[in-house]
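hey so u asked for the seq, here:
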Amino acid sequence: MNVQNLNSFDPFAEEDPLGGNQDVGSQQNYLHIRIQQRNGRKTLTTLQGLPKEYDPKKLLKAFKKEFACNGTLVEDEEMGQVIQLQGDQRVKIANFLTEEGIPKNTIKLHGF
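ran it, structure tokens below
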């Protein structure tokens, strides 16, 4: 007795569920602008996922000068360098980045 059909397809073989396309569901190509509540009315705006061709220190300096707020650069384990700004600066950051040439469809606004 010879069973030929089991040799052609192994149902228990390791298979890539994405079919070789690793970008499905990936959040690495998006810029995430989030707002976090501190205490009372105070808020904090964070910018994550900045592309490598942009210098975060120069961008932070431009943000602080343009928006008249304080900010800092924080090193995160998962997202790399994160820019934190005082206050709700989400719309201002999105407008600033689109003027600098970043496509609007790669910017994700989060919060409230």
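The two ends are 67 Å apart (CA to CA). The first strand starts at residue 31 and ends at 37.
lmk if thats what u needed
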